[in-house]
Amino acid sequence: MSRSIVPAGVVLVALLSPLPLRAAPPFELKSLQLDLPDSDRTFPDGPGADVINGNCLACHSAGMVLNQPALPKAAWSAEVDKMIHSYKAPIDAGDVPAIVDYLARIKGAD
Amino acid sequence: MMQPAHPSRFLPTRRHVIAGASAVALASLSRRAAAGMFVDLPLPGGPDSRQITTAFPQKGAMILQRTRPPLLETPFEVFDQGVFTPNDRFFVRWHWAVIPTEIDVASFRLAVRGYVNTPLSLSLDDILKLPAVELAAVNQCSGNSRGYFQPRVAGGEWSHGAMGNARWRGVRLKDVLDRAGVKAGAVQVRFNGLDEPVVAEAPDFMKSLDIDHARDGEVMLAYAMNGEQLPLLNGFPLRLIVPGWYSTYWVKMLNDIEVLSQPDTNYWTATAYRIPDTPHANVDPGQTGVRTVPINRMVPRSFITNVKPGATLPAAAVTEVRGIAFGGDTGVARVDFSPDGGASWQQAELGDDQGKYGFRQWLSRIAAPKKGDAVLMVRCTNRDGVAQPDTPNWNPNGFMRNVVEATKVAIG
Q1: Domain housing B356
Q2: Which residues of A touch B50 (CB under 8 A)?
């Protein structure tokens, strides 16, 4: 939408006019087609890295986890449990200990 | 009686104009160059380094908290540039990663259905023909400043930039509900957007408001933000605006409104986003058995915007200190500033009132301080007489921080 430059005098007349101002022009919405960036960041190498990369990155990028503070292992266990039970992450029960151990190793506070 | 502050007193100094110019330059840098830029958020215990990203569409330089689903934080210097947060610097928070990236305004429809007499399918043209209203309001994440909770808690590790203030233009939710005709006995209204979880079984993100709140004439459906259509990541083409309430209720890409005859039991209303039903939503770490309620009204907050933590201020000279405040669910009554860690307080001048739900600028001065370390504090009291507390709250989700913030500086 282009904006025309109106001489200042015209604006002044409009502002001082006793007549009701014309209604603002109808708001116009324009369709959008955009791309969102993805992240190719993976979890740092170490025991369990393959398991956490394979289970967690489908739903969220690694940065979310890597920005977390150090937390007790019980807190990490609760987080993984929330991902599975509240957010329905399809994580094989056999993979859970490796994921929790990995998180407690890189972000542990015990 | 306090004189209204001269507007020019609140304008950024030349130094900040230069900072603004460098932000423009930053926005024009290539992704590769921007990828090398980081900011340190002073979060206790860390990690405090975050990448500055310019990779997101319709967004300038933002603090990258998470790429997918996007969590983008507003760099704090933006709040020194005025009370309205520019759309391209406004924070972004999505729960699920399946976010439409193509929205056709001609085919988009908003459904209004459920416990109504006449279900509706409204086009954007239909909505644009309804009476337009405009309102300034702060949109703040429930977990804004979560990174300062001690002990630390899991979640988006935000500094103070998961908030913004905009002029929202749109239509009253009440007008839309009246067109559909809410049936007697309706109890809540549930809002859903176009975003979806990656895993189909996961709970779709939806939020509900009580019917009386939904019909209060203030809750609105916004199609414009600061005079422009909403950026995709802030909820284009329609976003629910719930003035005075936390952002979790401000459903983005809103395409479905369902009037309910029974209280909502969906995960995001019934289980998530709950706070302890205690003063300041405060509990002791490890405390259990506390009754919880859905998070709701915001509480007052205030910030210094022109002095960074660790800055050096001149001794024996007057330094102007300014910032922003908001009252939460009502306007700002007063802002008080302390140059000495809370030992003494002085009432700040307030900038123009742009509406009770918006940011309000404030201005104060430090007069000829002595050399040494100093702690600057600012406290907002809202029009209901609610003031920011002196001690931080704590709860396991890291919600509703509003303690009086302390900024440590050096004088000399």
Answers
A1: 301-411
A2: 67
Residue B335 shares a structural domain with residue B359: yes
Task: Place B224 in a pLDDT band, splitting at 50, 70 and 90.
Answer: very high
CB pairs under 8 A between A and B: 109
> Do B50 and A67 count as a contact with CB atoms less than 8 A apart?
yes
Residues B287, B313, single domain; the answer is no
Binned at pLDDT 50, 70 and 90, residue A23 comes out as low
Of A42-46, B33-37, B111-115, B187-191, the least confident: B33-37
As for how many domains chain B has, the answer is: 3
Segment B238-261 shows an average pLDDT of: 98
Nearest CA in chain A to B53: A37
Grade residue A30 by pLDDT with cuts at 50, 70 and 90: very high
- Of the candidates B61, B93, B125, which is a domain's last residue? B93
CB burial string A19-36: b at 16+ within 10 A, e below? eeeeeeeebebeebebeb
> What CA–CA distances, in Å, run from B176 to A4, B109, B121, B183, B291?
34, 13, 11, 14, 35
Closest Cα to residue B140, out of B172, B171, B166, B168? B166
| CATH of span A49-107 | 1.10.760.10
Nearest to B105 among A31, A41, A69 (CB): A31
Specify the pLDDT at position A24: 59
Same domain, B224 and B144: yes
Task: List chain A residues with CB under 8 Å of B132.
Answer: 24, 27
Residues of chain B neighbouring A36 (CB-CB closer than 8 A) = 56-57, 68, 70, 99, 101, 233
Angle B78-A66-B162 from CA coordinates, rounded to 5°: 25
Which pLDDT does position B27 carry in this prediction? Answer: 43
Same domain, yes or no: B127 and B257: yes
Residue A109, amino acid = A
Tokens of B226: 């600061």
The ipTM estimated for the assembled molecules is: 0.88
Phi, psi of A65 (to 5 degrees): -75, -40
Nearest CA in chain A to B124: A29
